[in-house]
Amino acid sequence: MVVVQTMTIEASTIEERLAGLTKAVEGLKKNVQEQDAKLSNMTNKMESMDERATSQTPIKLPEIQEK
Description:
- Residues 36-67 are annotated as: Disordered.
- By secondary structure, this protein is mainly alpha-helical.
- The chain has one helix and no strands.
- The longest helix is centred in the middle third of the chain and has 54 residues, at 2-55.
- The protein starts with a helix and ends in a 12-residue tail after the last helix.
């Protein structure tokens, strides 16, 4: 009878650990997805800024003549 009780306790402990690990992995997965979305957003903003900068004509500064 002692062996059966020990196996049940070990099984529930393993199940609890597995549930905890599953929850941790789900949390990490959500965090990675959020970070990926932020990174994509920042990349799109940078590309947009780069496109605007290259499409504008450069400003010509007046030449200064030395005396």
